[in-house]
Structure formats: structure tokens, C-alpha cells
Amino acid sequence: MFFAACIGSIFAPEENPEGATGSAAAFLRLCQRAGVPVAVPGELASLCCGTPWHSKGYTTGHRTMAARTLQALWEASDHGRLPVVCDASSCTHGLQQLADALPEPDHARFTSLDFVDSVAFTAEHLLPALPQPRRLARLALHPTCSTVHLGIDNALHTVAAAVSDEVTVPDNWGCRAFAGDRGLLHPEITASATAVQAKEITGRTYDAYASCNRTCEMGMTRATGRPYRHVLELLDEATA
User: Fold this and answer.
1) CA 231, 114, 125, 10 torsion: positive or negative?
2) Do the bridges between strand 115-117 and strand 84-86 make them parallel or antiparallel, or are there none, so unpaired?
3) CA distance 119 to 9
């Protein structure tokens, strides 16, 4: 089942010649193209991974959202039979941390759920069933803090390599310090955190720029002046 991250709805995708659709729409099209059926919770618009509440210290809100989200995902995943796939790495990581806000009696249901990032799911289940992608010459790739926590950097590189002959992860890549709303309220923090990496990126020309989390893409776009997009958007276009 698919849990579309709310940041994809809040922040519009980067404009592109193919038309801006975002990572959620791209993932659903890839699943359809690969012949993989997808279930979506009916109440998705009222659910959240809980990260905004947790990061702000709003413990009551975090507990309320965790309980609501667990119940919806438990039912939509057929009591844990289906993996729960999310299209933003920070939100996938947030879903994996929901147990911290759940009462002890709910832990058994929580541990029955399998939370998978859309990039990892695509690398394992969709790529083998998709048409041969049209390839770019060079792609700049930005991993995220969450891909490190999730252990999916290899999956991210696999998907990127499926659409480009050369994939470059900058030597100086690191956290872009967007940190939820920090990059909106204090852009100078993001500018400082990305300065060295941005200089490395802008020193070469690439056919595309990719990451796997909308706010990280926004931070890197701002820092480099280059259009960073979710890697699944690139794969969607390359296999259309």
C-alpha cells in the first residue's frame, strides 16, 4: 500500500518540460507500468508520519497522530500483509519511529507493519518489470540524512544508475539543513550548509539533478540554481 507524504502536496514539484507531477504521481504510474497493484488509505489526507510533531516537541499531537496513522495503515495494509511504501525518505524514517509515540498495547501491531521507502521498493520490485529506460549522460545525485538512517543509499544509486550513464554524488555532500521548516524561516542556515557542495555541483554540467525528499530537493535547488527533482520522477519519464 502507498502512503504519499504530505510534503509532496504542500510543496509543488519542480517545474520541468514534461510537466510537474511530483513523486507520488510518478510512483503510482511506475507501479501501473510494472503491473504492481497499489492500495491507498481512504483517509490519507488526514494522516501524517508524525515527524513535524516529534521534531517540535508536541508530544500530545505526536501521540494522537501516531495512533490515527497506525489504525489506518493497519487496515489498509491488510493487517501488515502489504508493505507500507512512502515517497519521501524523511517521512519513511518518521513512520519507522512511530512506536516512540504509541502505547505499549499498540507495539505488536506496529511491529507487524513493514515500512519501505519508494526508492528501495522501486529498486527491488519495479525496475526489473519496467521498460528499458531512456538514459541521460550525466546525473547529479543528492542522498539525504534519511537515506543514511534507512540504509537505502545503494537503492538510491541503483535507481539513478538506471536512468543515467554517469551518476555523481558530490564528495562534499551532506545535510542541506532544511530541517523541516528551518530552511523556510532561516534560509541562511541552508545556504551555509550547502555552500561547499553547491560549488562542486555548479562546477560541472549535468543533464539532471535528483534526490528523494521534497524539502531536500528544494534546498539543493536554492543552493545551486539547478532543478533538483525526485529520482522517481526521472525514472517515470525515462520509462514512459
Assistant:
1) negative
2) parallel
3) 18
Report the alpha-carbon distance of residue 187 to residue 118 in Å, rounded.
Answer: 28
pTM, full prediction: 0.90
Task: Report DSSP state, residue 211.
Answer: E
Q: What is the residue whose three cell numbers read 550513464?
A: 165
Give the DSSP letter of residue 36: -
Least confident segment among 97-101, 178-182, 202-206, 221-225: 178-182
* Residue pair 191/223 in contact by the 8 Å Cβ criterion: yes
Please report, in angstroms and rounded to a whole number, the separation of the first and last CA atoms in the chain.
Answer: 22
Distance of alpha carbon 104 from alpha carbon 19, whole angstroms: 46
What's the CA dihedral at 79, 80, 85, 90 to 10 degrees?
100
Query: Position of cell 539525504?
Result: 144
Per-residue pLDDT of 29-68, as tens digits, reads 999 999 999 999 888 888 888 877 777 778 888 899 899 9
Dihedral sign for Cα atoms in the order 146, 234, 14, 176: positive
Going along the chain from its start, the domains and CATH numbers come out as: 131-239 (3.40.50)
C-beta separation of 212 from 144 below 8 A: yes
How many residues are recorded in the chain? Answer: 240
